[in-house]
User: Which sequence fits this backbone?
């Protein structure tokens, strides 16, 4: 019961600052927290990157394995995205099987990569019944709110830094590479929170815990490639369209932090 | 989404199954009060989708530690029958997809329930997809709302869902199975009668203008679903429905 009252008080406080056009940490409504990306941080992975937005830190590791193509698409490899909300990342995370938060996180990042066709899955085909599977795994090292954008940034940065391993006689020869992964699109997400009728970009933890709704918009520069509304609140059509237009602009800012893995 | 084929998905303004671009699949039938035990229930037959929804509540909260003296706890479970897909046998355990859909549908349902009016209680909503042919989450949500009405759960508004897609470059209503596989985008959405979007997802590629057209088409057509829900409730209260599920 006390928690309910505390949450209401926190929500009212956040709303008060939002109405004045600023956030608890002094940002304006549509400003990202500090962004930092570093590629090639895990030498055992075929590609990797760590992305930080504010205090949220996500590490993406890319590994290749030989897989059997899906029956419906026998000439294609696959891109599989997973996520772990590590208990060390937050006092609110517990050890155990994947919970709904990590499932949604993985699926939304995956959706953006897949819809944007970040990789041509046909290029991963090896021979009948064998293809390369690209496993992108997101590890949350610190949870400061808004996993989606840090996750999408880490995943893309890792893929841009990924080297494709040599395949010989249907086997992967580790530590021998045939070149960089052909990354054909650069999808990135921007997540907006909403409290009452005010929307704002990149919810930090204290905002995320009291928001009514959120909208994660992933674009590739030309198209919207994914939308995910979360929370018990709602959006008007016009709000969605306004936020999409803003998302295109904000993606440009995030792109500046991406190299192509030569750093 | 986005599989290749030589199939002409749209020809002369008609889709594979002969529909126009803005037509719902048929049949599109909804009945409430179809289950004996549930406090509220509904069955929707929408194109090739057959979905049953059952509501239990308001009821005592178990486990007790979940109880909230300020509001009701709403739990939603979306699941697909192992035989519901024409493809391979499904798994019994909830898939990651089912868990995600349970959450997005549950959020939409919770947003229309007056949870403060029934504090310290729990409302469980079950949606079981017995037969699937694309657009199951919006069909399940539409049925679930009817089941909530049938159960007498206090609601602030009615909601229904519709999936709009982009197929062969066109924005179309209610995409079917092949359109889902070979089309360019899929956008499931749910509106209340005030035009608030309670559920919104998209995968594929759409320009912002296409998103606008899709949202507007969905809003225009969801009105037919509100009528469908209302007629189902009216038929029930006029005693026209036997409390018997008929698939």
Assistant:
């Amino acid at each position: 019961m006390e928690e309910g009252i505390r949450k209401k008080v926190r929500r009212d406080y956040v709303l008060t600052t939002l109405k004045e056009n600023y956030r608890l940490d002094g940002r304006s409504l549509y400003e990202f927290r500090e962004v930092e990306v570093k590629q090639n941080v895990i030498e055992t992975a075929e590609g990797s990157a760590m992305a930080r937005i504010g205090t949220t830190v996500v590490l993406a590791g890319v590994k290749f394995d030989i897989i059997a193509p899906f029956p419906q698409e026998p000439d294609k490899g696959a891109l599989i995205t997973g996520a772990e909300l590590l208990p060390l990342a937050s006092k609110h995370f517990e050890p155990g099987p994947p919970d709904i938060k990590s499932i949604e996180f993985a699926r939304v990042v995956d959706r953006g990569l897949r819809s944007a066709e970040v990789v041509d899955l046909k290029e991963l085909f090896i021979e009948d019944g064998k293809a390369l599977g690209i496993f992108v795994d997101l590890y949350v090292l610190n949870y400061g709110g808004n996993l989606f954008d840090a996750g999408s940034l880490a995943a893309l940065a890792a893929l841009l830094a990924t080297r494709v391993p040599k395949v010989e006689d249907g086997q992967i020869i580790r530590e021998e590479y045939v070149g960089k992964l052909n990354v054909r699109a650069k999808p990135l997400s921007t997540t907006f929170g909403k409290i009452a009728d005010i929307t704002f970009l990149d919810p930090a933890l204290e905002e995320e815990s009291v928001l009514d709704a959120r909208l994660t918009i992933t674009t590739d520069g030309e198209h919207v490639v994914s939308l995910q509304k979360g929370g018990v609140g709602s959006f008007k059509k016009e709000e969605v369209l306004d936020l999409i237009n803003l998302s295109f602009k904000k993606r440009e800012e995030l792109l500046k932090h991406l190299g192509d893995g030569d750093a | 989404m986005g599989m290749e084929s030589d199939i002409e998905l749209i020809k002369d303004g008609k889709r594979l199954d002969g529909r126009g671009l803005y037509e719902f699949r048929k049949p599109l039938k909804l009945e409430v009060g179809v289950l004996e035990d549930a406090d509220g229930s509904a069955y929707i037959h929408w194109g090739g989708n057959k979905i049953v929804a059952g509501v239990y509540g308001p009821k005592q909260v178990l486990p007790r530690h979940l109880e909230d003296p300020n509001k009701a706890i709403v739990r939603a479970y979306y699941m697909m029958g192992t035989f519901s897909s024409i493809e391979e046998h499904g798994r019994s355990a909830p898939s990651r997809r089912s868990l995600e859909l349970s959450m997005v549908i549950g959020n939409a349902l919770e947003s229309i329930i007056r949870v403060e009016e029934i504090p310290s209680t729990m409302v469980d909503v079950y949606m079981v997809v017995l037969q699937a042919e694309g657009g199951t989450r919006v069909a399940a949500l539409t049925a679930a709302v009817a089941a909530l009405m049938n159960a007498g759960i206090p609601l602030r508004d009615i909601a229904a869902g519709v999936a709009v897609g982009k197929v062969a470059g066109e924005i179309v209503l209610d995409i079917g199975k092949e359109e889902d596989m070979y089309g360019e985008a899929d956008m499931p959405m749910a509106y209340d009668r005030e035009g608030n979007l309670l559920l919104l997802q998209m995968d594929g590629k759409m320009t912002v203008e296409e998103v606008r057209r899709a949202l507007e088409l969905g809003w225009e057509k969801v009105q037919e679903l509100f009528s469908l829900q209302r007629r189902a409730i009216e038929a029930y209260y006029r005693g026209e429905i036997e409390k018997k599920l008929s698939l």
